[in-house]
Every structure is written in C-alpha cells, then in structure tokens.
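Q: I have 213 residues here and want to know how they pack in 3D. Can you give me a structure?
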Amino acid sequence: MANKKKVIVTGFEPFGEHAVNSSWVAVQELERLGLGDAVDLHVCEVPVEYQAVQRLLPSLWEQHQPQLVVHVGVSGLATTVTLEQCGHNKGYKRRDNCSFCPASQCCMEDGPDCIHSVLDMDTVSKRVNESSLGIAFSVSKDAGRYLCDYTYYTSLHLGQGRSAFIHVPPLGKPYSSQDLGRALQAVIWEMLELLEVGQKHNEHCNHQHQHNH
C-alpha cells in the first residue's frame, strides 16, 4: 500500500520514583502488536528533559510527516488509561532529569494558554470503553504541568492539533504491560478512524462549498 498512514508513538524514559517507566514499556508492547498493515508505526523513547523535547519533536514531525503523533506518559495517580484533551503553555516549575526548568516556565513565548487536540477524546474514550477490552479509559483536561504536558503542548502546536496524549498507570496498578499495549492499540485505531471521518467531512464540505460559488 503506497498510502500507508504514518503514526509516531512515544514513551518516556525513567524518572523520579518511576525506575521503570510503564509508558515506554507499553509503547514497546504496542510496537510488538503493531497497528495492522495499513499503518506504518514508528516508536521512540523521549528523555524527561525540556530541552531534549524542544530538539526532538520538530524533527519527528518534519522528518516523518505523520498523520498522528501519540505521546504516552506514566501517572502515579492514574488508575485508568487517561486520554488528555489539551496541552498547557504555562506553569512549568518542576525540574527535569537534568535539574533544568524553563526560565519563562512556559513552552512557547506568546503561545496560546491551551491547545486542544483535533480529536474528541470523549468520543474515543466512549468507544473503547464500550469494547470488550476489559480496560477502563477516562478523559482529562490537565496533563500535569510536567514533561507530559510540555511535550503534548509542543506537539499540538507542531502538528496543528493532530496529536494525542495518553497517561497510563504504573505497571500492575492494575494493568500489565500486555494490557497497556492492547489499550494503546485500540485507542489509536479509534483515533485514526475519527481523523479519517473528519477528513472526509472536510473534503465533502469543501466540495459543497465550491458548488455554491
């Protein structure tokens, strides 16, 4: 298939009390499962460093021209697989793995306070919750003002909203790496379907629009 969809999925390296980061474990499990023949999946591990994110993300978007970039992070507070709707620009006071924190405490000078994903996470969550996966999904509008939120905001900006962020609980609390891999696979399939429907709708609208004039 010439027109394979390109999807990039990232997880984070260990930090703080997370000696093993379940996000990267889940992403590696997803890589093993794959996203089917129609999707070209590219995974990478992101350092828990603000400056590394600023370097890495533009190259991921430019080099691969993906349809969708999904970032996965761990949350010690999460008990469900949590879909984040938006990324925030300000409030970055917590130091990273290099003990660095942005002097401005924001992602982008003069950027909007909040950027929303083009994907409606409520719809995605509803669909996967109704499936027979046996994994609980929820939606959040606060990605935590640390590297997760920072990465999400940066990616939403670079990809004009064609990005998603998924928080996963630590391993075994309650889900195994296999569970999390299957959860990511199911969610990303739903996301790609929503993007496709949106695209068709836009083409249809443009088509209609041209007829009117």
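Q: Anything worth noting?
A: The chain has one domain: 5-212. The mean pLDDT is 94.
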